[in-house]
Amino acid sequence: MNRQSLQRHLSTLSAVLVLVLGTAAGPAAAAEKGMMDIIKEVAKEKGVLGVASFDAQGNLALPEGYRQWVFVGAPVTPNDMNDGKAAFPEFHHVYIDPGSFKQYQETGKFRDGTVIVKELVSVGAKKGASGNGYFPGEFTGLAVSVKNSVRFANEPGNWGYFGFDAENGKSLLPTAKAQPTEACSPCHLKNAAQDLIFTQHYPVLRAAKPK
Amino acid sequence: MNRQSLQRHLSTLSAVLVLVLGTAAGPAAAAEKGMMDIIKEVAKEKGVLGVASFDAQGNLALPEGYRQWVFVGAPVTPNDMNDGKAAFPEFHHVYIDPGSFKQYQETGKFRDGTVIVKELVSVGAKKGASGNGYFPGEFTGLAVSVKNSVRFANEPGNWGYFGFDAENGKSLLPTAKAQPTEACSPCHLKNAAQDLIFTQHYPVLRAAKPK
Fold first, then answer.
1. Is the peptide bond preceding residue A64 cis, with omega within 30 degrees of 0?
2. CA-to-CA distance for A59 and A47, rounded, in angstroms?
3. With contacts defined as CB-CB under 8 Å, which chain A residues touch B135?
4. Gap from A35 CA to chain B (nearest CA, Å)
5. What angle do CA B78, B171, A128 make, to 5 degrees?
6. Within 10 Å of residue B97's Cβ, how many Cβ atoms?
7. Nearest CA-CA distance, residue A142 and chain B, Å
8. B124 to chain A: which residues are within 8 Å by CB?
9. Helical H segments across chain B, by residue range
């Protein structure tokens, strides 16, 4: 961090402090505003809000920056091992949002607000310098699940599922509506090792779980 | 961020500010100390130091927290597709340190100081709810490469290579010494798409590269 960015940080921090610590010295209005900020921050920390962003119609916005979240595992179900029609072709890059990963490290549970991203990637090659196998090609699709006990109060495990693939099969939609319960939950409920998440395929989560 | 952690942040920040901004008001010694800190910070930002940590004998310390770095791709070269003896069995989880990823997003180049981690994972299953394929099992090994124009001035691309697998094949060593040039560089030099890095197998890097 250089001096300029330090100064920027300090300036931001001061503004936040005025809001949050305003309760100590300020008048009633400032105290109330300060308290709301504290509540919001605590709610965010507890995962009540999380990183998922919904619009007024309940559509989920395409998550941003998920390729810098915590990667948990990459199963590959290639088309050529599934009669040309894998359910999710082909590599699945699976990520969890960093705040929920931190909570998982501490509690071994998926907190309210957890966001899991599954990005699909084609097989680009079956031979490389390191041998025969499957090597990732190009991004082909994106699916997201969000655990939210308020929005998905009646869904198994309180998970909502969203697909972001455009019909042209080439681009991603900016928002997606929740899939009907029968589309995803039954398979997750039956086959996933923990709380509808396929932790049996995610060594990073298994290693992070408290013993 | 709740009030307590805000206060912790402020306390840390104040300590840093005293060091870095000490140049403005302090005596000559403080000014010199402040300047050294600024130089170190700038050097770190520019990747001259990076996240790699070497001991006095030039051994690299096992990187920490790499499972929260930026994942770039996971080729799989299963033993059963390589006569039971893949060169790097079997999944390869490949990560880049976040600061160097940021630079790569801006410049399309691997900065001096870049650290790439390749964590090896066994195949745990060949069948899952999503179909036939390869599903990750357990962690089995770790290799690291570090780009450093001073330490590896005579190595191709200034990359040094390190293996952290203990002889028992079960644990990781706390430090590792650089591999001889012929162990890794020739294959990387001949086959890797960019600066001895196999970007052809890493869709996250290809997508991050400026057009």
1. no
2. 19
3. 75, 200-201
4. 11
5. 25
6. 24
7. 14
8. 200-201, 203
9. 3-20, 22-25, 28-45, 98-107, 181-191, 203-208
Checking phi first, is residue A76 left (phi over 0); if not, alpha (psi -120 to 50) or beta?
beta
Backbone angles phi, psi at A41, to 5 degrees: -65, -45
pLDDT at A16: 40
Per residue in A99-145, pLDDT tens? 999 999 999 999 999 999 999 999 999 999 999 999 999 999 999 99
CB contact under 8 A, B124 and A71: no
Supply A85's token pair: 């029609």
Rounded Cα gap, residues A79 and B131, in angstroms:
9
* Contact criterion met (CB below 8 Å) for B90 and B79: yes
Per-residue model confidence as pLDDT tens digits over A55-105:
999 999 999 999 999 999 999 999 999 999 999 999 999 999 999 999 999
Kindly determine whether residue B77 and residue A124, on different chains, have CB atoms separated by under 8 Å: no
Tally C-beta pairs within 8 A across A and B. 175
Rounded CA separation B96/B108 (Å): 13
Nearest CA in chain A to B17: A6
Nearest residue, CB atoms, B81 vs list A6, A132, A200: A132
- Are B173 and B165 in contact, with CB atoms under 8 Å apart? yes
Query: Distances in Å between the alpha carbon of B171 and those of A118, A142, B19, B168?
Result: 30, 35, 40, 7
ipTM attached to this prediction: 0.79
Asked whether the beta carbons of residue A130 and residue B87 sit closer than 8 angstroms, the reply is yes
User: CB–CB of B191/A129 below 8 Å?
Assistant: yes
Domains by residue range for chain B, with CATH: 3-46 (no CATH), 60-208 (3.50.70.20)
Best residue of B14, B71, B190 to probe chain A, by most A CBs closer than 10 Å: B71
